[in-house]
Amino acid sequence: MTPVITRKRRSRSPDETESLAGALGARLGPGDLVALIGDLGAGKTVFARGLGAGLGVMSGVKSPTFVLVREYAGRCPVLHADAYRLDGESDWEGLGLDERQADSVVIVEWADRVLDHMGAPAVTVRIEDGATDEERFLTVTGPSSLLEGLFETGEG
Q: pLDDT > 90: what percent of the chain?
C-alpha cells in the first residue's frame, strides 16, 4: 500500500493555483477521485480548471453548480461534479459517478458534503483564504506516488 502524505502550499494568485493544480492533473489517471473542499469563492473551480488542463482538457473547465456534473474529454474522461446542492446518499448515487469512475477522473467540488457517501478520494484538496483576496493556502493529501516531489512543503 502506498503511503499517504500531506503537502501544504501557499498560492499567491488564481494563476498560480491553476498551475499547481495542472501539475497534479498531469499525474492523475482513470479511477482517481479528487475531493475539493473550501468555502464559497475559495478557488475550487480554479483548482478544477487546472486539474483539467493537466488532464488534457482543451475546452476549459467551468463550474458545474447548476448542472451538477460536467463531462470533458482529455487523456481520459473527466467528470466534474458539484455536491453543494446534494442532500444525502441518494442524491450522490443519483449522479452515477461511482459506475463511471473506473474509466474516468472524477473531481468533486464541495466534497465535504458527500464524503460519507463517495468512495475514498485519491486526493483531497482543502483550499483556505489567505491574507489578500488572491492568496490561498492549499493542503493536499494523497498517495505519495501522486504527490511526491509535486508540492514543496511550506509557503512555496
A: 61
Q: Quick check: is 125 in a domain?
A: yes
The whole-angstrom separation of Cα 24 and Cα 14 is: 15
Residue partners of 130: CB distance under 8 A and separation at least 6: 10, 11, 136, 137
- 3-state SS, residue 139: strand
- The residue range of the domain holding 108 is 4-147
Please report which confidence band the pLDDT of residue 156 belongs to, taking 50, 70 and 90 as the band edges: very low
Write down the pLDDT at residue 68: 86
DSSP class per residue in 23-57: HHHTT--TT-EEEEEE-TTSSHHHHHHHHHHHTT-
Q: Considering the domain boundaries, does residue 58 fall inside one?
A: yes
Q: How many domains does the chain have?
A: 1
Q: Is residue 45, in this structure, part of any structural domain at all?
A: yes
Position 122 in a domain: yes
Of the CA atoms within 13 Å of residue 101, those in its CB half-sphere come to 19
pTM greater than the 0.85 cutoff = yes
* CA dist., res. 9 & res. 55, Å (int): 21
